[in-house]
Batch of 2 targets.
Target 1
Amino acid sequence: MPKPVKKNTKRISELLKISEKLNHIKDIDSLLDNILLEARKFTRADAGSIFLADGDKLKFSYVQNDSIAKIDEGNNKYIYSIFDIPIDDKSIAGYVALTGDPLLIEDVYQLNGGVSYSFNPYFDEISCYRTKSMLTVPLVTSQQNIIGVIQIINAKDKKGEVTSFSNDQMMYVSFLANNASVAIERAKMTREIVLRMIKMTELRDPRETGNHVNRVGSYSIEIYEKWAKNKKIPLEEIKKVKDTFRIAAMLHDVGKVAISDMILKKPGKLTEEEFEIMKKHTIFGAQLFENPVSDWDALSAEIAISHHEKWDGSGYMGRVDNIYREEIAPQIGKKGEEIPIAGRIVALADVYDALISKRVYKEPWKEEEVLKYIGEQSGKHFDPDVVKAFFSIYDVIRAIREKYAEK
Ligand SMILES: [Fe+2]
Ligand SMILES: [Fe+2]
């Protein structure tokens, strides 16, 4: 039968192309987003989630749902849901992670008698969704470690009706999952290295905690996505920027490693002279990413040097022609769109988080006070379009705050 063979070859080469693409993605969340999207495209599935193993638990790590996205524009908040599932035979995802066997289910509400697992309708209930057919496959590395599961939901036929997944589809998604596992492990390693760079900053300046930078990273990409959609920037471009933006935003203050303890840890207000030195953390940050070898380096440098600029021109560092010159003459801050968009976004994300969080030297502001302040600073400290995007996804911002709350 020559026809199916030809079809298979085409599909496998498509899968290899996808795997190749996945291998270039650095940010773990962006990678999960892409893997899920590709697996769903392959099966025309309406929704899906990825769970990553963490000890004896599965952490709900990523979700996509087209039907909900259509009704609720701010559906990104589900991405930031937090819940764990034990790796055991009681749940569908737990069972697959435990045994390493994929599961193909026709209707999750009508499971065969005699199986140990059951379907948890929690997500359906909170989102008014009806899960029916489901395909769950393990993410297995080349060393045969199960690092998580990918679960796709509600396959659709050509007319858009919900149908069952086929054995063929199970095979293809398993193939994709195996290849994706390598990329996931690599992206996790990148994230770890970045977190260690941040840990170094944190050791120097206890105000820059891992949770603070995680929040700033997530706020920034969500604000960017909304802002970019408002500006009608093509989706492909948005996706590409989001991949590097989170990590780059997380590193906004990494230049503080080069500021002396006397200034960094000084209780109380800095003198004018000390503040001038403190300002230079922006430049030291940019120096760390000199000679960019990737988009990520370039964006990190841009954010480091511009995250204290203000829309009305009253911020710093302004136009610096040589970031290595010892003496940097007082600069006039950059103004308006002269400040790169990434800097304008991180400025808001960073200030919002600083005000609303408790820090060693201050109590948190009340939420309504923070929002009032941000509204007032629109057009002064902040870009009005960025403020607008921030307010229109505020439920997502809140979900991020909960996910990365200080313990
Ligand atoms: Fe800073
Ligand atoms: Fe910060």
Target 2
Amino acid sequence: MSDRPLLEVRELCASYDRSQVLFGVTLTAPPRGAVAVLGRNGAGKTTLLKTLIGEMRVGSGAIVFAGRDATRLPTERRVRLGVGYVPQEQGVFGRLSVRENLEVGASASGDRRAIDWVLSMFPKLGQRLRQPAATLSGGERKMLAIGRALLSRPKLLLLDEPTEGVWIGVIEEIAERLRALVKEMSIVLVEQHLELAVSVADYAYVLDRGRVALEGNSRSVRDDPRLLQYLAP
Ligand SMILES: Nc1ncnc2c1ncn2[C@@H]1O[C@H](COP(=O)(O)OP(=O)(O)OP(=O)(O)O)[C@@H](O)[C@H]1O
Ligand SMILES: [Mg+2]
């Protein structure tokens, strides 16, 4: 297996209109395993994922995916190359049932067997196939959003706060699935729940006002006394 990263992000800068949010972010993700992105509210975590999927224009810097320059590729080209994205909010069609949400995703990728794979991973969804997605619990909705992103069988999954708004009893269930997924794919995991992030990701980056302030093995980052100042509001 090659040691070459699947994702290489170099000196990435991005702005909303005139307000710059990312200031030279450099990070890599291996073909298997997760890297965590930590940081307080407003640090730029969601903005970073939006630049990686192509929803946000890159000001300068480079995004290299599987050895190919993806910096300016439109979102659907990135998806076809193998990038999946689970946004912090939404990610499902509320008025459609669980089954319809999965069918829409599978018809886009043309891989209907992927639905069975997703349901085997999240059996709870199988019990709710006819239920409108808007009426799912927070945890079930996150599972559906993750499931939808998996339908295109991504090589790299960008996950923005998969446990936000999820009841504590279900968080561990999601964490367990993520620990299984990283055996076969790469994940960039934005997560507020520090212990969960450490249990899924081997490596962590801490963003502070749009810059990587701290990085390293996820356990050493968790135990670093400087972490507190970067996570404090
Ligand atoms: N559409 C937008 N227009 C202008 N500024 C924005 C927009 N979206 C986000 N920002 C600003 O960019 C900065 C980074 O926001 P971002 O959503 O990336 O942070 P985050 O780390 O994901 O925060 P959270 O933990 O709250 O999700 C914030 O100052 C935010 O106010
Ligand atoms: Mg965010």
